[in-house]
Amino acid sequence: MKIALNCFGVMLLLSQAALAAEADPALQGENEAADEGLLSVLRNGELHLIPRYRYEYNDEDGQRNLGKSSTLRTRLNYRTPAARGWTAFLEIDDVRSLGPDLYNSTRNGRVDRPAIPDPEGTELNQALLSYAGESYALTLGRQRLSLDDQRFIGSSAWRQNEQTFDAITGRARYSRAEFLYSYVDNVNRSVGPDRGSPPGDLRSNSHLLNARFVLGPLGSLATFAYLLEFDNSPELSTNTYGATWNGSFELPRGFSAVYSLSFAQQEDSTNNLNNFTAQFGQLQLGLRYRGWTATVGRDVLTGDANRLNVSFQTPLGTLHGRQGFADKFTITPAQGLIDDYISFSGTWRSLSLLLSARRFASEVSNQDYGHEFDVQLTYRVQRDTTCC
Fold it and tell me: Which helix (H) or strand (E) holds 38?
């Protein structure tokens, strides 16, 4: 239906131009040139239809029933060819449940089932105009933002409905440095598009700043300041400042060591009534050999034993995989979180493997939250088809 309507709109525009030319012969040459230019844009653009089927099974302690979802996301997008550095991009997503709703989508009212937050709906996922120069770029409109490792700012692309941002974003490169500034007017969350709880949209007046520096043999340093303000969720209004240092160095016999160190401080801002300061820290050490990597790490998100809504939060991040793959800690508990983990990952031909084991505990009292074991296997069937 939407493809037909879009084509109909183009045809109607062309027919109107032709009628105008017939009414005034002096305009015929001008309109023919305009028509040819529009047809050239349509012919040379990129149109993609991307279906993604998902079956998800959730057996959760404390729930009498299982959660079982069978959903299909159909994505249609179109990108115009570049014209003097400018391009336009439009993307529509539609998510449908196939079969009975045996899961809590956060919108279907099935609170008797475990949560699998893939609600049905049709949404304008992206609609943007962008300009790319030699060392700078500008993007206006609804867009995807994925900064650094996506812990703080990401698209949550694991879920069927992606998180996108209504924003104005500027990027610039100078020598071995990259800079980004984005003003965000609205956040279209993965639990949307319909209204409900949690909210599908965050009405925003937020500023995102990110700077990345290549340090040669010392690796790279990313610094950031994320100043968030939300009208309809003031408890999430925070200022977060931090940095991440990543690097590697060669070892004998073809091995290499990899490391990552992060620290961030978060405080209340603007309309947030909670007066607090919280911290985040991460340390990762790894050993790499021929495309395979073993990693050990610890993430710490601080909390408070006596107060709510003052633990370190990352409401705009890609939360899946940050503190495990079961998504039990997408919201940091009041007493904070310690995540100790070990992982092994690599690729062989068309097959990718990830194994991880985690132990969770509270940051305040080291109370045991439990363990998690994850296995992810991805197989690329062909260039444009992947099963995970």
Answer: helix 28-44
